[in-house]
Give the backbone structure.
Amino acid sequence: MGEEGKDGGEEITFRVACQRLRLSEKTLRKRLRAGIIPGRQVEGKTGKEWRVRLPVEAGEAPGAPEPPPGETIAILDEPIVSLALYRELLTRHEQAVGRLGYLQAQVERLPALEAGAAAREQELREGREREAQARARQARFAAWCGVAGALVAGLLAAVLWLLLR
């Protein structure tokens, strides 16, 4: 299908490179011009044409058949990655994004939770103050009852003494 280049890579036509790399023509052309993908322009029947040089992977012969579509994904300048691994990574990424969204929502709730906690603390302080005031009233009442009880007991003792005399 293609010729073997000087560096051991296979030199293929522009359209074949688009298919193998699963890139649009526009994207491949940009990457060739930027030098991201190795290639050269040659004179063709209708003018200048691109020839793309793809490196031969270890153990792969030049012109080896492509893997069946849907089973693998070619990543530029990297070995072929299995679709199952790609899907697993994509699933993990989606789960991580979901957890991140949940955590961001929790962080956004923090100011409201802090305000609620401050209100509860204020209510607790006010309740403790009311309890202290009630205990003070109770102590005053008990003291008054003690004084009143002592007075009553003293009066009864005086009345009995007068009657029994």
